[in-house]
Amino acid sequence: MTAPVRRGAQLDVKRRRDVRGEEREQLRQVLAIGYRAGASIRALGAAHDDLSYGLTRTLLLEAGVTMRSRARRPKPTP
Q1: Does residue 8 form part of some domain?
Q2: What is the 8-class DSSP label of residue 6?
Q3: What is the C-alpha separation between 43 and 56, in angstroms, rounded?
Q4: Inside any domain, residue 1
Q5: Is 38 left (phi over 0), alpha (psi -120 to 50) or beta?
Q6: What is the DSSP string of 7-75?
Q7: Cβ neighbours of 27 (radius 10 Å)
Q8: Which domain holds residue 31?
Q9: pLDDT at 6 over 90
Q10: How far apart are the first and last CA of the chain?
Q11: Cα–Cα distance between 32 and 11 in angstroms, integer?
Q12: For residue 54, what pLDDT is reported?
């Protein structure tokens, strides 16, 4: 007899450890510098231990960063 299939169950879900204290403060500052230099939230998250979009955004807001508009940036004039 085969084992029953559990539909909807997540088998190998890895929960990200909490980022707290000094580590969180350092990560905030590094992300803020990158965002102010023009990097996207997704690019920053991918570059820093695969942070989720939501956590990356939260850390940026905690660092006091003003979010850019979602509109495309204008092309530079020649």
Answers
A1: no
A2: -
A3: 10
A4: no
A5: left
A6: TT--SSPPPPPP--HHHHHHHHHHHHHHHHTT--HHHHHHHTTS--HHHHHHHHHHTTPPPPPSSPPPP
A7: 20
A8: 22-62
A9: no
A10: 71
A11: 35
A12: 93
The tokens describing 20, both together, are: 């707290």
pLDDT in tens, 51-78: 999 999 999 999 999 999 887 777 777 7
Residue 10 counted as domain residue: no
- The tokens for 73 are 């940036």
Residue owning tokens 């559990």: 6
13: its two tokens: 């879900």
**55-70 as b/e, with b when 16 or more CB fall inside 10 Å?**
ebbebbeebebeeeee
Token pair in block for residue 33: 């510098």
Residue 37 falls inside a structural domain: yes
**Domain count of the fold of the chain:** 1
- Structure token pair of residue 53: 């979009």
